C-alpha cells in the first residue's frame, strides 16, 4: 500500500480521538498537571502520545515536557509516582512509573549537533513553542497543556496529520542539521503511519544524506529495526533507497537494483526482495509470538544480497547467481556487525540467508530421510523462520508453478513433522554419549572423542536412531578401520 491509497483523516475524527484518549488518561494527567502548575511551572503532554491520540491509538508510555528543571521535577513527583529514576539528567529527563503508565518528563530543550559530533549539545529552553520547534516533524510538534487540556499546535501538525503528510516545523535543512537521524525517522514514520513525506523534506534528505554518517551505528541500527518492524516497511525502505540514505546505512539493498539489458533474462531482484519481505510478514502468524519479527523480516530483506557479487551472463541469454546464498550470508554478517547487532541476531539472520536455497534440492520429494534430518539439524532453532522464508521466496506469477512449489513444501513440512514425532529431530544427539565412547574405546578426553562423536551423529542422520548394541558395534568397526 502507498500513502496515496490512504484516505485523509477528518478533523472531527481527530478531535474525537484526542478527547477520548485524554479522558482515558485523566487519572494521571489531571493530578500531574495540577502539581506542576500549583508550583508555578508549565507541563504538557507532547510528541508521539499526542499524535497517536489523534490517530485513535492508546499509549501507556507517555512523554511530557515542562519548564521545571530536573531537580524540581523530581521533587514534584516524589510521593506521587510509584517509582522515580534518572533517565538522563544532563538531557533534562526524569522517568517515573504511576500505576500502568511509564512517564518521561523532560525540561524544555534546545539541542543541536555541530558538523562532526555524534552527540547533541543540550541547552534548556524557556518556552513550550520553542521546545516544539526543535522537534522532528510537525505531527510530533503538538502538545496538550495540563491540566487545561489546551492544544498547542504552532506548526500545523493537526492539518498535516489529517492529510497524512510529514513536514518539519522549520526548514528540513535546519532540522536535519540539528539531528541527521531525523532523515531516517522520516522513512520510519512513513512506514509506521503510512504517511507521505513532503517533497521539500525528500529533497533535503537527498542533499544531506551523507550527514547520516556522523550518527552512531547503534542509533542507525535502532531506527532501521523500527522501520523494518513497521506496518508498511516497503514504503520506508523505498524512501531510504530513493534518497541515497540506504547507500550509506544498508548499501546491499540499493545494490539489488541490478542493471537490466534486453539480451539477458532475470527478474528484478530489488522488487522481488521487497515482495518477499511482505510475503514473509504475511506468514508471521506461524511464529509463537506472532509479529512483528525482526529476524525473519531482515532475513527476507537480505536473502538475495549475494546476487550482485555472483551474477554471470550465459550465452543462451540466462543469468546465473551461483553460490549467492553463501556470499549473501557473509555480506549479511559483515553488515550486521557494522550495525552492532548482537551475535545471536547476526547468526540467526545469516544462517537463514545461507539456507534459503536448500529446499530447491528437494525436487518433487526425492530427499531421503537422512537429507530431511540434515535440513532440520542445519536450521536448528530457525526452522520455522526458514519455512517462512522459503515459502515467501516464491514470487512467480505462474500460478501453476507457485501451487506446485507450495504443495512440495507442504510435503517437506509433513515429513519433518512425522520424523520429528518419531525421533525428536530438534534435539538430535548420537546414540552414545562421550563417557560411553571413552569407556568403549579405552581413551581419554581429546580429539578422538570428538571424531567418534561426529561419526555417531552422522550414523544417526543417515540411518535414524540406533539401539545401543548396534551403535557400539558400528563405533568399534569405525575405530578398527582407522
UniProtKB/TrEMBL annotation:
Keywords: ATP-binding, Coiled coil, Magnesium, Metal-binding, Nucleotide-binding, Nucleotidyltransferase, RNA repair, RNA-binding, Transferase, tRNA processing. Its cofactor is Mg(2+). Residues 395-422 form a coiled coil. Transmembrane segments: none annotated. GO terms for molecular function: ATP binding; metal ion binding; nucleotidyltransferase activity; RNA binding. Pfam families: HD, PolyA_pol, PolyA_pol_RNAbd. Residues 269-389 form the HD domain. The keyword Repeat does not apply. This is Unannotated protein.
